[in-house]
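Example A, followed by Example B.
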Amino acid sequence: QVQLVESGGGLVQAGDSLRLSCAASDPTRGAVTLGWFRQAPGKEHEFLASISWTGSKTAYADFVKGRFFIDRDIAKNTVDLEMNNLKIEDTAVYYCAASRVVARMPYTYSEFDFWGQGTQVTVSS
């Protein structure tokens, strides 16, 4: 099992940048890919980005390419999401997750097996 704990959320203004962090336990034992999702009020979980712990591969949702960046720190067992030029529509609860899928880079909710509790990000005008 993988335990995940998110941090770094808060209230920011449109145009600001924010970096979210996710601390993971034993990421190379129970999962091979770590990712970030978000859930806005009344909506489903939305895939943002993922990174392969072993292969150092990344995948991004089209609407965040060039604005959001995912990275991992092997020594610290963390996966971070750097968000730039935040917009009001970015307001949501942000979750980190871990997947055991090995055939390809996962991007759907059902492909991720472990989830953190989430951290709130609110963007105001």
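Example B, a separate protein, is given below in the same form.
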Amino acid sequence: QVQLVQSGGGLVQAGGSLKLSCAASGRAFSTYAMGWFRQAPGKEREFVAAITWRYANTYYADSVKGRFTISRDNAKNTVYLQMNSLKPEDTAVYYCAAERGGDIKGNYDYWGQGTQVTVSS
């Protein structure tokens, strides 16, 4: 299994930036897909971005495309989500997740603890 530990998040004004980190440990995960999801109060969880460990193929939700960037650092076993031009609608709890089959659009198997991102207007 894989353990995912998140860091980052916090309060930022609209138009600002934040960078989230997700450190992975445990079983080898070179074939995994890594994703970021978010959930606002009273809303369903939604997909934000994903990347494959092996080839660094990326995919973004339309709502964040051009503003958010997902990346990975193999040496640190860490996935990042750089969030720029933040909007109040980006306010949510953000979760890092891993999918064992390497399918960015598949069902994710492991989840981080979540971190709050709040964007003030």
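On Example B: The mean pLDDT is 94.
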